[in-house]
Give the backbone structure.
Amino acid sequence: MAWLELPSSPFGRGAQGSWDAFERLRREVDDLFSRVAPRGAWSGSGVHPPVNLYDTAEGLVLTAELPGMKLEDLELSVEGQRLTLGGERRIEYPESERTSFHRRERRPGRFRRTIDLPKEVDAEKVRAGYRDGVLRVLLPRAASQASRRIEVSAG
Amino acid sequence: MSSEIPRPESTTAPSAEGSRNERESGREFTRPGPVFRPDVDIVENPEEVIVLADLPGVSADRLRVNLEEGVLSIDGEQARESGPPGTPVYAEYRSGAFHRRFALSERIDGSRIQATLRDGVLELRLPKAERHRSRRIEVHG
């Protein structure tokens, strides 16, 4: 079975034509695809989940794209101003006597990332949720860091 | 032949930028933003073709899978909730939409397609139409 990747613009039914047409189309696909970016962080070698870190009034929020993770394979810890995110992404394929791969881009493997947090957080109150393949960690700021209103008295 | 996972209409009116995006790409988008090509695995066995696609941040109501005239298209939009909840400190990825299309040379039985979205991974099972399944041909000496 031939798999042909198509660009965003619609093509006619010529996609299943001769080999020449196939090659021409493939080149066209490559050119057009420069506008549709691969999900960079996952496409290198190994597993390197991309993270974003945000500063909010309540503390810090970390999000990480980790599609298809089992929660028991995910490790998250906070020590001082250092957050460690590690785990293993397992990819299982349906068993079959005669199975062939046409594309194999999703990467399994272990990963471990250490992120320095720009402010102190209350490690006891860290909460994490996983939904639709995205990890979201809420890191409330440490009590000593919470902003206090300082009264200014006249005189 | 057309098979589609129904997707509820977005209640958000497209912005001016969104409309431009829509015109450029020829697809519907409800918000502006980058379009990413999801990583996929495509596995084939004698009975079916299985497509696995990484779509982190996409929920079932924001995913559209379509098979029409031998072209399989996958369109997903990441949830707005995954947008910036504060001031970015580190930013290693952007949120947007996923898009990918494939032409299938094999005939698929559209009535038996199964699609499952779990933890940001789409699993599509595309059973081959009966007459296109590979057959073992006995050779007699």
